[in-house]
């Protein structure tokens, strides 16, 4: 068996979800919304499966969706794209896996920013890459030129960069992207940019795509997710945007992974991406209201809530409570108080921050309020 996968532990999400079921807990660990998603988009999928083709769509994706993705990014992010720059994948994780298999050879180095989505490291290792880490810490989760200089080398081939960042909720400003871009250009590295949270940005902020930074259009692979944009995480419809020389090899890897994605879902996503800007604003406003509801409730109960500018997640720093073991805290919280959250140390490969836990706020008011009720007194008794 391949040791990359054979030696992997059970994921923290599976562990905490199992404990949540075992203890009848309110599950704020796994990142999916309770809302079923926009009705008009779901209806389009249903109509397409009844009235449209259910045979193999083109390997690169339905033309209508590829054009819709290009138009969507022209409209919202000012990117000069055409359908030829777009490929449809079965979710963003498949897009990342295919890109890593396509872009690196055994021994190539890949710069990773931790904390990081837990799929990154095994995918890099499976592709033969050698990880080099930039470690981010609360409360700002930022990085410096010195941090990048320590991670980059003549063997750097790819930088895997996630903004907005899960799990920290950081939306990196243009200055940070320009800092990273200088290193990518100097080392002739490709930026593989996981931008799935690009629409879930709060407080009037706007996502800046790495592809828009000078010098990066020709060396950036941009990955997006309809599941995140529309809160339809089970659909697993992703898209890749890249210049032709990179897309050529990306498509070759994709054709031998999933090859294609259900055509009815592609058709529905194409419709959804063309919806009015007000619909996307309303989605953000609703999630921001949920963020604030949970953040205020946690603060009132004595928790140190860290700022979050995007994603479905906010974090609590347990250090002011004298707690330095986030895993033990999460295990006790689900068993003793019936609330499941995730230890952020699980998102590090090494040098982990061990005092931060992540809450998902993409839930109904009733679910958030039930969790807050169960958290009453937890912080007070911890000090």
Could you please describe the fold and organization of this structure?
This protein is of the alpha/beta class and 383 residues long. The protein has two domains: 3-30 and 278-382, Aspartate Aminotransferase, domain 1 (Alpha-Beta Complex); 39-274, 3-Layer(aba) Sandwich (Aspartate Aminotransferase, domain 2). It is 42% helix and 15% strand. The protein has 15 helices and 13 strands.
Helix content: 40-55%
Order of helices and strands: HHEHHEHEHEHEHEEHEHHHEEHEEEHH
* Helix-strand category: alpha/beta
Number of strands: 13
The CATH homology group name of the largest domain: Type I PLP-dependent aspartate aminotransferase-like (Major domain)
Instruction: Please give the order of strands in the largest beta sheet.
Output: 2-8-7-6-5-3-4
Q: In angstroms, what is the radius of gyration?
A: 21 Å
CATH C-level category of the largest domain: Alpha Beta
Query: How would you sum up the global shape?
Result: globular
Cofactor: pyridoxal 5'-phosphate
Catalytic activity: L-aspartate + 2-oxoglutarate = oxaloacetate + L-glutamate
GO molecular function: kynurenine-oxoglutarate transaminase activity; L-aspartate:2-oxoglutarate aminotransferase activity; pyridoxal phosphate binding
Keywords: Aminotransferase, Pyridoxal phosphate, Transferase
Secondary-structure blueprint:
Layout: H1 3-6, H2 12-23, E1 26-27, H3 39-51, H4 63-77, E2 86-89, H5 92-103, E3 109-114, H6 120-126, E4 130-135, H7 145-151, E5 156-162, H8 174-186, E6 190-194, E7 220-225, H9 226-230, E8 238-241, H10 244-255, H11 263-273, H12 277-300, E9 304-305, E10 313-317, H13 326-337, E11 339-340, E12 342-343, E13 356-360, H14 365-374, H15 378-382
Parallel strand pairs: 1-11, 3-4, 3-5, 5-6, 6-7
Antiparallel strand pairs: 2-8, 7-8, 9-10, 10-13, 12-13
């Amino acid at each position: 068996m391949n040791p990359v996968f054979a030696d992997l532990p059970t994921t923290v999400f599976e562990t905490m979800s199992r404990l949540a079921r075992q203890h009848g807990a309110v599950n704020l660990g796994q990142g999916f919304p309770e809302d079923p998603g926009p009705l008009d988009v779901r209806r389009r999928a249903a109509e397409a499966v009844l009235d449209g083709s259910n045979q193999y769509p083109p390997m690169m994706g339905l033309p209508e969706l590829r054009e819709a993705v290009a138009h969507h990014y022209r409209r919202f992010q000012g990117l000069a794209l055409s359908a030829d720059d777009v490929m449809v994948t079965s979710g963003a994780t498949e897009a990342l896996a295919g890109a890593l298999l396509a872009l690196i050879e055994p021994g190539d180095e890949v710069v990773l920013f931790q904390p990081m989505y837990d799929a990154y490291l095994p995918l890099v290792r499976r592709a033969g890459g050698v990880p080099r880490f930039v470690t981010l810490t609360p409360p700002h989760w930022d990085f410096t030129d010195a941090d990048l200089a320590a991670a980059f080398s003549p063997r750097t081939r790819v930088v895997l960069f996630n903004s907005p960042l899960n799990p920290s909720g950081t939306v990196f400003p243009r200055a940070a992207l320009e800092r990273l871009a200088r290193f990518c250009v100097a080392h002739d590295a490709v930026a593989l940019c996981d931008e799935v949270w690009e629409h879930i940005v709060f407080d009037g902020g706007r996502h800046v795509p790495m592809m828009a930074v000078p010098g990066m259009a020709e060396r950036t692979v941009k990955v997006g997710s309809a599941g995140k944009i529309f809160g339809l995480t089970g659909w697993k419809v992703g898209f890749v945007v890249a210049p032709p020389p990179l897309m050529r090899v990306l498509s070759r890897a994709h054709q031998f992974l999933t090859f294609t994605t259900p055509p009815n879902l592609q058709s529905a996503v194409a419709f959804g991406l063309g919806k009015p800007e007000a619909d996307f604003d309303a989605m953000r406003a609703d999630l921001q209201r949920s963020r604030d509801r949970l953040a205020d409730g946690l603060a009132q109960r004595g928790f140190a809530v860290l700022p979050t500018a995007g994603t479905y997640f906010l974090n609590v720093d347990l250090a002011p409570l004298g707690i330095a073991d986030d895993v033990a805290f999460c295990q006790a919280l689900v068993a003793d108080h019936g609330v499941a959250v995730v230890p952020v140390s699980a998102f590090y490969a090494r040098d982990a921050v061990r005092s931060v836990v992540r809450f998902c706020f993409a839930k109904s008011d009733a679910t958030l309020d039930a969790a807050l009720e169960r958290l009453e007194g937890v912080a007070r008794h911890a000090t």
